[in-house]
Amino acid sequence: MRSLPLGRSGLRVSALTLGTLGWGTDVEPETAREQLEAYVAGGGHTLDTAHGYGLGETEQIIGDLTREVVDRDDLTIITKAGISRTTGDRVVDTSRGTLMRQLDLSLERMRTSYVDLWLVHTWSDEPALEETLSALEWAVSTGRARYVGVSNYQGWQMTRAHALLQQARVSLVANEIEYSLLRREAEQEVCPAAAHLGVGLLAWSPLARGALTGKYRHNVPADSRAAQRPSLLEPYLDDHSRAVVEAVSTAADGLGVTPAEVALGWLTARPSVAAAVIGARTVTQLRSALKAVDLVVPDQVTQALDEVSG
Hints:
Layout lengths: L2 E3 L6 E3 L1 E4 L9 H13 L4 E3 L8 H12 L7 E6 L1 E2 L6 E2 L3 H15 L4 E6 L8 H13 L3 E7 L3 H13 L4 E7 L11 H8 L2 E5 L20 H4 L1 H4 L5 H17 L3 H10 L4 E6 L4 H8 L8 H11 L1
Parallel strand pairs: 3-4, 3-12, 4-5, 5-8, 8-9, 9-10, 10-11, 11-12
Antiparallel strand pairs: 1-2, 6-7
Helix pairs in contact: 1-11, 3-4, 5-6, 9-10, 9-12
């Protein structure tokens, strides 16, 4: 699998990064093990997780698997802090103290002394950005994080954070954002800013919560996430989205690959995108997505997809 530099930093990430959002909830530990085995066998080395995933169980599973399946030093681990759901509700807290506590707990769960990349999980108007970023400075200076960045920051927010960290001689190397053929808003502001600053982009939900696989083209399967949690998929099932999915499916038929491969191939070729964060409920789904790493989408197809999805 291709390993790409994250922006202008020395950190390299797998072009298809393994997302672990469902580990411990939708994905049982044994299935998580099988996914990691398949991912490593396919040449991947980058895991994406967060303090708040699975109420902490996700990072616990990673800690177990890095001792049993693959050596910690052979992995690039990304985690995030600033969001928790321990009360049942989504709580955003990007204060220095909370971020520091969450990182230490993440390290304890994963049984590691450091993470390769630590991100502030989301923007918050409170506290002041300077306080939030002071936690990133602390993480780098103490060796708890090799590199730091942000997640879900708009262009101006990322630019401000980058400038403040530069004053402390710390590089902001990444912004993890939603980006796909059905969600191209990042191209208005985030992508140009990232290219200018040398920040690498990690794209979450690159298949638009499964819509770009084509499985919702004709109906909604009873056992799918769209059927179980309709509100999650509604924004990806409107008329515009359906037109994009049809174009992706047509391209896939012509190239002899799956729609997921086309969508991922299109995305990983975008400027400033270092990796697409792929998640799966089954090993079969993961293996199918991993095939995209070898696909080069022809220019003519790329242009057609740009037009229909723009």
